[in-house]
């Protein structure tokens, strides 16, 4: 890991006891969907869905499934398990049907972690700005939350902790690039339509997402290629990108830094063929 760019993320949140509990269990046919809650900080509890295939005969590979952004702050984990939103985003459920244990938490500011009065307003810039004045970043918190979810996941008896993957679309695709650089337990990661580097983001139609603002990052000469290049040699990355998607700009250059590229025609989508390729990639590298 490149210690230089990591230091720009600021201090890391402290680990606390998970104090996990299961609050719901639902039979979904080929898998069971549990709703769990665990701690990521002294006063911060995170809700997540965990999908466990019924066909398991021993510890299985597991995948962290990160939800998209889409300006839908009232929606998070529920979309990736198929309870709400677009059916093309239900990849946590689809992976469970294919034999993977999956976890889908709410990212900070989304669904049950959105603390705005209407539960749907953008609180991400508040979460960012209040950290920046303390010399912290929202990205460090988000990556800490991902690692804590993986802590919970690998502690479960159904999970083989040596076979952990990551999958995300859009916002989730961005996190799919950062997470393997700060949590080396991730052996394979798929970033779909979320790979635009910082150097291509300073345009009116793109800009930066609050969660990825790191002061001084490009001034120090860094970009996403440096993040990808810092992965352990054993970590596999698939960059899934489309031809008419602003968030897929720079995909080929980023893949050249250490990933496999799957290029498609289309806009900001995660179609069935794209998902099938992503699932096969994860199955191959988590076998």
Which SSEs are present, and which pair or pack?
Layout: H1 3-7, E1 21-27, E2 31-41, E3 44-53, E4 60-66, H2 77-80, H3 91-97, E5 101-105, H4 124-132, H5 138-154, E6 159-169, H6 171-182, E7 186-192, H7 224-229, E8 236-242, H8 251-256, E9 260-264, H9 272-285
Parallel strand pairs: 4-5, 4-6, 6-7, 7-8, 8-9
Antiparallel strand pairs: 1-2, 2-3, 3-5
How would you describe the shape? globular
CATH top level is Alpha Beta
Q: In angstroms, what separates the terminal alpha carbons?
A: 25 Å
- The overall number of domains is 1
User: In percent terms, what proportion of residues is strand?
Assistant: 15-25%
Helix content: 25-40%
**Full CATH superfamily name:** Alpha/Beta hydrolase fold, catalytic domain
CATH topology: Rossmann fold
Order of strands across the widest beta sheet? 1-2-3-5-4-6-7-8-9
Give the H and E element order. Answer: HEEEEHHEHHEHEHEHEH
The strand count comes to: 9
- Tally the helices: what do you get? 9
Mean pLDDT: 96
Question: Over the alpha carbons, how many angstroms does the gyration radius reach?
Answer: 18 Å
Residue runs with pLDDT of under 50 for 5 or more positions: none
Search tags:
single chain, 287 residues, 9 strands
Summarize this entry quickly.
With 287 residues, the chain is α/β, with parallel strands linked by helices.
Question: How would you describe the overall organization of this protein?
Answer:
With 287 residues, this protein is an alpha/beta fold. It has a single domain, classed as Rossmann fold (3-Layer(aba) Sandwich). Helices cover 28% and strands 24% of the residues. It has nine helices and nine strands. The protein has helices at residues 3-7, 77-80, 91-97, 124-132, 138-154, 171-182, 224-229, 251-256, 272-285, and strands spanning 21-27, 31-41, 44-53, 60-66, 101-105, 159-169, 186-192, 236-242, 260-264. A nine-stranded mixed β-sheet has the order 1-2-3-5-4-6-7-8-9, sandwiched between helices. A hairpin with a 3-residue loop joins strand 1 and strand 2 (31-41). The longest helix has 17 residues, at 138-154. It is globular, with a radius of gyration of 18 Å. The protein starts with a helix and ends with a helix. The mean pLDDT is 96.
């Amino acid at each position: 890991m490149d210690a230089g760019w990591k230091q720009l993320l600021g201090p890391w949140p402290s680990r606390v006891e998970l104090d996990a509990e299961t609050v719901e269990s639902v039979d979904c046919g080929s898998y069971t969907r549990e709703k769990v809650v665990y701690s990521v900080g002294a006063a911060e509890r995170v809700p997540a869905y965990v999908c466990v295939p019924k066909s398991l005969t021993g510890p299985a590979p597991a995948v962290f499934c990160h939800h998209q952004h889409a300006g839908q702050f009232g929606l998070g984990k529920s979309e990736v398990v198929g309870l709400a939103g677009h059916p093309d985003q239900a990849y946590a459920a689809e992976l469970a049907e294919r034999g993977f244990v999956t976890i889908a938490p709410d990212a900070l500011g989304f669904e049950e972690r959105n603390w705005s009065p209407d539960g749907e307003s953008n609180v991400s810039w508040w979460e960012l700005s209040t950290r920046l004045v303390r010399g912290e970043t929202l990205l460090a918190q988000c990556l800490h939350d991902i690692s804590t979810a993986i802590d919970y996941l690998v502690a479960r008896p159904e999970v083989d902790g040596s076979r952990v993957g990551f999958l995300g679309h859009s916002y989730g695709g961005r996190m799919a690039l950062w997470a393997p650089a700060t949590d080396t337990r991730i052996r394979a990661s798929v970033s779909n339509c979320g790979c635009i580097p910082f150097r291509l983001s300073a345009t009116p139609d793109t800009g930066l997402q609050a969660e990825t603002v790191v002061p001084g990052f490009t001034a120090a000469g860094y970009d996403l290629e440096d993040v990808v290049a810092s992965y352990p040699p054993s970590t596999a990355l698939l960059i899934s990108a489309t031809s008419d998607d602003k968030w897929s700009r720079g995909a080929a250059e980023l893949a050249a830094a250490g990933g496999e590229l799957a290029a498609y025609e289309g806009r900001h989508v995660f179609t069935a063929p794209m998902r099938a390729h992503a699932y096969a990639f994860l199955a191959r590298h988590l076998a």
